[in-house]
Design a protein that fits this description.
Chains A, B: Keywords: FAD, Flavoprotein, Oxidoreductase, Transit peptide. 2 copies of one chain form a homodimer. The first copy, chain A, is of the alpha+beta class. In chain A, about 30% of the residues lie in helices and about 20% in strands. In chain A, the strands form 4 sheets. Chain A has a 7-stranded antiparallel beta sheet, with helices on both faces.
Chain lengths: ~475, ~475
């Protein structure tokens, strides 16, 4: 669908607007865009201020033109690319660190700031921003807030939402408001802060964030535990969490992932299930490690190595290679889906076993890894897109895994968001009443439906909606 | 305003309905109801199931009859008592512990369960529910969720919202939905969970909660530090937090509060500012205490005592007596307002100084205490209600303190909620756009405005609203 975006030229913006084909192409896809899914925006706007964002939204809202916020494009569910054309609102020029208040453990930033830049800005004060996702060196804080991202350190420190205190948000009609509070705790009125966080730009556009920071721990150690079976590994994980071991990271990789990483990277991992662990403390770190060791030994750990500094980084390197290894592993196949189902920690062993069983019954290679300490499981499903039968088989396997997670009391997405790819699971997870309530909120805050349409919520009904053609039955767009 | 509630008799409820004068009177006031504020409901319903709550709401919604959820009545801002009559929905009979899943660190409860009963139910498994407020032995989990309560341990463990995973909620029209997820982390759709938490029963009624639990720490020690000046005490607090000392509780009381407690209880506190502190650890607790000690010594601490067990409890006892001491201290004066403003931790010393300055300029006795580690300040303002000049003076002082907190980047209410008493500050804190956005959400989820009307949101306008007579200008009802 094309939209007349000439109104952008009439606005008095600090930033700029492009209709150039390369800008439009660059904003048509992101890390989560699958084969044949890319939809170009009609224009790309590069706002440089809150006033710019407000002016663009107010004008687009009057005209019913879709606006899809875009930043680093690292989302895995096509969260930030258009489904219905319109304006791509690229906020990467709004990347200033506005203020650092070490006495309050706070920093104010614009949404286009890269995650690691926050850490760099405060490192000199001995502070850090704990919940960065693994993509933190390339993704923006705006994107992390949009999906309520989390990462390896979430098991100790919590998710992005736990570290966002206050946001400046522009509503669909251009109204600017501040949600949340710079106080560490508030019960003042409705919690609009957490409503905006994770809403993927469908309820408002974030233009400024106040984040909470933490002091860097004085001691860091970590390492790797190799297990004889996947069952032993996952039961050890569950036991570590319920025993209250103070782990700062607790990651799992299965033997398939180990094989994949060995094939790609210059490492020689034992091709067995293993966990990667890290500890942060101001003192007493060795006692905590002993606590951990006692539990993994009770689960027949085969190898357990702990180190610090470069040696620890070397032990961990295999974990960091997974994303690249997945992309390169099989030249005939592309990632068709990237899962992040999350289940209650006691159900984690069952969930991992369920994925293995799905892989076998569909005859697929499905490597598993993830933020095990949160019950969060990552897995890749790969398909040869020249083989329609395989594509269908892979999609069915992916759906079965998600269904199983929901049956176990879990969620379709722990941290990547719904985007386009997971819309089909929303009602399964939240029920018709849950989806209808989310839709009521969306209609209240964006009555013209201009903010990132075609995301998060499934289509209301095929007749009434302009988005009727976007392939709602399998949650994927088939547009070219 | 009276409402015909005879429709309740037509419902096929498991629970019961009363129109008896003592039930109506008992549901007309709570801990936060001020002189002359009590409004009786026309009927009190005692639902015993989700189906009961759904049937009552559906019927009330059709007829436009207000429904005000009520539980233990321990709210401090008249959160749970009617402003416009109608039905008081007393959920205290829904007090079952439904399921305990130690492998998931989870418990499912009905909303009428008393906080301490949760701890008792899981103590045998070595678990506890960390964010209980000081009222935890008398207040219900439903009330804690309604106000997003917090407490002494929030400085280490977070607030109630951080420990609520999933809620069953009945919407105004009787629709039952589940919000949140039993997974520790989710990015699936809009965060309706945190929208309901803290909404004081104005967006829906909670009928079941899944809570996260934690393992009890193996070591607990705590004690008291006495400071030469209030400035030294508050600067030490700010320094402890920014240095990352792992405190489980960090409370302040000023010399006025110490004097008040001495007058009431059988203790002999030094009449100087002091902090109460507690540490939780699995090991290394003494090293953490040394870390704390070094900081308070740098702030000229006069006395510092640490103990465990009964001896610790004795050191802490004065802190626990404050609520009773406040009520009894001055027989001629009643509490007119109970403040819980919260500011960024670096601003805490200024906030405390501001209250002292307000007390002096208004010639009032305003004792301060509170959850200092969160930047949360409690204070009482007392008035002789036979002296209208004093009442006005006290209200003006109270308002000036709240305004000052908001100016410092803080919030009008850290944990008690808006209720009736803080409505006048909502726009000051969130701006017109913030309040208008909250109102849009309210209208989307409760279009007939039956859920706890007259709370949280200020009146839309005096002409259009049935609530025009509830004394919106000073945020207090003057009805008899």
């Amino acid at each position: 669908m094309h939209h007349d975006c000439s109104f952008l030229d009439e606005l008095d913006l600090e930033g700029s607007v492009s209709r150039g084909s390369s800008d439009r192409r660059n904003h048509a896809s992101d890390f989560g865009t699958r084969e044949g899914q890319a939809v170009e925006p009609d224009a790309v706007a590069f706002p440089e201020s809150t006033a710019d964002v407000s002016a663009i939204l107010a004008a687009a809202n009057e005209r019913g033109v879709p606006v899809t916020p875009y930043a680093a494009g690292t989302g895995l569910e096509a969260n930030a690319t258009p489904v219905h054309g319109g304006v791509s609102l690229d906020i990467t020029r709004m990347d200033a660190v506005l203020d650092i208040r070490p006495d309050d453990l706070q920093i104010d930033v614009e949404p286009g700031v890269i995650g690691e830049a926050i850490n760099e800005a405060v490192a000199g004060r001995g502070l850090f921003f704990p919940p960065l996702p693994s993509s933190g060196s390339i993704s923006t804080i705006g994107g992390m807030i949009a999906t309520d991202a989390s990462g390896q350190q979430t098991v100790k420190y919590g998710e992005v939402a736990d570290w966002v205190l206050e946001l400046e948000v522009v509503r669909a009609d251009g109204t600017v408001l501040t949600v949340g509070s710079k106080a560490a705790k508030t019960s003042s009125g409705y919690n609009l802060l957490n409503l905006v966080i994770g809403s993927e730009g469908t309820l408002g556009v974030v233009t400024r964030a106040t984040l909470q920071l933490a002091g860097r721990p004085e001691q860091i150690k970590g390492g790797r535990a190799v297990f004889p079976t996947l069952e032993a590994a996952t039961e050890a994980i569950s036991d570590v969490i319920t025993s209250g071991v103070d782990v700062a990271k607790l990651e799992l990789i299965d033997e398939r992932t180990a094989r994949m990483v060995n094939a790609y990277a210059d490492v020689e991992l034992p091709e067995r299930p293993m966990t990667f662990v890290e500890f942060h403390a101001n003192h007493g770190i060795d006692e905590e490690i002993d606590f951990y060791r006692a539990i993994v030994e009770a689960h027949d750990v085969a190898e357990f190595e702990i180190a610090s500094g470069d040696e620890m980084a070397e032990l961990w390197r295999a974990r960091e290679e997974i994303a690249y290894a997945s992309e390169e592993y099989d030249p005939d196949r592309e990632i068709e889906g990237s899962g992040d189902v999350t289940v209650p920690i006691g159900r984690y062993p069952e969930m991992i076993a369920a994925v293995q069983s799905v892989a076998e019954s569909y005859d697929l290679f499905i490597p598993c890894f993830g933020h095990a300490g949160d019950g969060n499981l990552h897995y890749g499903v790969f398909a040869d897109h020249d083989d329609p039968e395989e594509v269908e088989r892979v999609r069915a396997a992916h759906a079965e895994i998600v269904d199983r997670a929901i049956e176990l009391g879990g969620t379709a997405t722990g941290e990547h968001g719904i985007g386009v790819g997971k819309r089909k699971f929303l009602e399964r997870e939240h029920g018709a009443a849950g989806v209808e309530t989310m839709r009521a909120v969306k209609e209240a805050l964006d009555p013209n439906g201009i903010l990132n349409p075609g995301k998060v919520l499934p289509n209301a009904n095929a007749q009434a909606s302009a988005s009727a053609t976007d392939g709602g039955t399998n949650g994927r767009t088939n547009r070219k």
